[in-house]
Amino acid sequence: MGSPEEARVRLPQLRLDELLEELQARLDAARGTRDRVHSLLEAVLSVGRELDLEQALRSIVEAAAVLVDAEYAALGVIGPDGRRLSAFHTVGVSEEEIARIGPFPEGHGILGELIRHPEPLRLAKLSEHPASYGFPPHHPPMNTFLGVPIRVREQIFGNLYLTEKRGGGQFDEEDVSVTLTLAVAAGVAIDNARLYEESRLRERWLRANAEITHSLMSGGERAEVLTLIAERSGEITGSALAVVGLPMEDTGSLAVEIAVGMDADAHRGLVLPLDSSLMGLAFSGAAPVTSADVAHDDRVSAEPPRFGGLGPAVAVPIGTGEAGPRGVVLLARKSGQPVFSAAETEPLQAFAAQAAIAMELAERRHDAEEVAVLKDRDRIARDLHDLAIQRLFATGMTLQSAGRFIEHEEAAERVVRAVDDLDETIKIIRSTIFGLRTREGAGEAGLRARAVRVVGQAAPVLGFAPSVRMEGLLDTDVPKEIADHVVAVLSEALTNIARHAHAERADVLLATDGRQVRLSVTDNGVGIPADGRRSGLRNMAERAEQLGGGLELQTPDAGGTALMWRVPLKKP
After folding, report:
1. Are 486 and 444 in contact (CB under 8 A)?
2. Which long-range contacts link 379-382 to residues 24+ away (Cβ below 8 Å)?
3. 493 near 506, Cβ under 8 Å?
4. How far, in Å, CA of 378 to CA of 221, rounded?
5. Mean pLDDT over residues 25-29, rounded?
């Protein structure tokens, strides 16, 4: 042992070492705090720079994992219902692991606890919390947990979830404080990204409106403008399918004029009822109608199948003024994508309303041009009647009077022929005047409307509503004589199904390509018996033969009968 003197010297040295160690520890803590604050500021700046929402969310998750040294991090976005997660962004789990785990969580268990109670939650062991009920197969083990809410303008946007602090430690109060600070910055960044996205979206809608208005006012065809409406609304909303339907006068039905995108051919030409279809309800109610899963919606007819692989959908009326909607546009996204929110539907509705105004202005301009043409026709007719016919008549009278003084027989005959020609010319001019003052087809229903009426009248007898598709310029290209035969054959075919087929479904296709008209009526009934009466079929065949066409009967693989009646539009 040393002397008392040496002990007294050693004691201050020990105290000095302890003080130096404590000072070093505080310096290290201060340096660590400084570094962490520096990292937090960098994270806040990094997150704040992002204007793309998806990238901003990704940056927030990555920054949170780095700041609290967590192995796994996730950001769950709360859906419109406020009870479930609509999106889930992760860090620390590979794509292969995600594929093995399965679908992203919807907000049950611990994740749902933060949705129900948006307050910071720190756990030493996840499995010990009452709301925990385990992980799905192939999920990596997780014990320590830290969760904090993200608020955007006093509303809960989502939650940050952090698990497995590296080094085996626990999340502490400082981790909670840092994460809450990041969550505040994240809320501001998300709000900015949303506002930026809304401004970009508004700009795209305005450009689309300007494009449609320009196309209409520059004399674009209606089909081209409707296609433009479908294409632009589908592109802006990220839809896989865009469909436009227009009302058929006095039929209580909508005809699908335009279809663009996924399985578009299955929609084009369909005739839909106003009271029992998604598009029909939007038209009759003059308000948007949404569907979370259009492929399994009761308001969509099962036949023909046409929404496979599609999920969220919205039908929006084109215009809702005093005159009512001018049509309906339906948009559908692929299955698994977000439903159409009110924030998306409102600008879409405004776009459709502007398109309706442009369509009405174009129609008014067309009507004004037509009125000008009719006035010009009336003027020409008056001039022909008051000037040309009177002069021709006077000339004829003069020649007729002069003919009596002509002694040469051949010359006299020539004058008589000239007078007859003048009479014939007057008749032609009068016929022309009548044609100028008469509008063809006034008040007469077209083939489309007549066919829809026949199908509607047959529905009560059949016990179900047949599906109807129409293609081509049926009202324009098909002459009235042939249209009368088409309507008669369609009525006869549906009557035969009601009497003999015992069918549960029937599909009608009426189409023309400008060269021929084609009527197809298919059912899933018992088929045509070999010894059955064929007077109705014989009448249909005779009608086709009179017009240079033919009738074919087939038995589809699934059973039933397929009737194909076709005739040329011009006689061979």
Report:
1. no
2. 380/436, 381/433, 381/436, 381/437
3. no
4. 27
5. 47
